[in-house]
């Protein structure tokens, strides 16, 4: 009976409860969050424009070890298993302030490009069995995507994620962090795509660039 009552309550909840809300707009970066059914932690969506071409941005995304230079709180990142040029498993270790334990995540990352729009999407899904859990580190989960669209001489980026960090983190603190993560990540991403090593990197083998006009 309680389960039925809960379901009926959800049906009559205002749609605005799960609507996106603007949390931050600064330096050309916008961050929205929304509630997620069954979770105390909000989902975030960050958007920005990068002064780069699509090939440069994809080169940055494929350089997993250097995520530590721009992905907020990242202490380590590596592709632990590469299935093909589009699909791999990535291990990410995030630092967390003392006295909390660091968090790690293992994600299944899949590259896909829309043949009509040219938009590139990296989908991220959590996996459990690829990397064993480690003592003193709490295993969390990440689900979301990166999306990149070339518009003129810029790339529009969308970074959308819902994470369950595992363990015990006060919800009030966690929901502040979900604003900082996309903002700081996109801010540093803007800087990294100007580096020569990414500008001059070979094109991703599966990337189709728009025809020159």
Description:
- The protein has four helices and ten strands.
- The chain is globular.
- Strand 9 and strand 10 form a beta hairpin.
- It has one domain (18-199): 2-Layer Sandwich (Alpha-D-Glucose-1,6-Bisphosphate, Chain A, domain 4).
- Helix content is 21%, strand content 38%.
- By secondary structure, it is of the alpha+beta class.
- Mean pLDDT is 90; it is low at 1-16.
- The protein starts with a helix and ends in a 14-residue tail after the last helix.
**CATH homologous superfamily designation:** START domain
Q: How many angstroms separate the termini?
A: 64 Å
**CATH domain fold name:** Alpha-D-Glucose-1,6-Bisphosphate, Chain A, domain 4
Mean pLDDT, to the nearest integer, reads 90
| C-alpha Rg (nearest Å) | 18 Å
Topology, number of strands:
10
Number of domains: 1
Question: What is the CATH top level name?
Answer: Alpha Beta
Low-confidence segments, given as residue ranges, are 1-16
Q: Number of DSSP helices?
A: 4
Helix content: 10-25%
User: What best-fitting shape do the alpha-carbon axes yield?
Assistant: globular
The appropriate CATH architecture is: 2-Layer Sandwich
Q: How do the helices and strands follow one another from N- to C-terminus? A: HEEEHEEEEEEEHH
How large is the share of residues in beta strands?
A: 35-45%
**Structural class designation:** alpha+beta
Largest pleated sheet = 10 strands, mixed
Keywords: Signal
Domain START: 20-195
GO molecular function: lipid binding
Signal peptide: 1-19
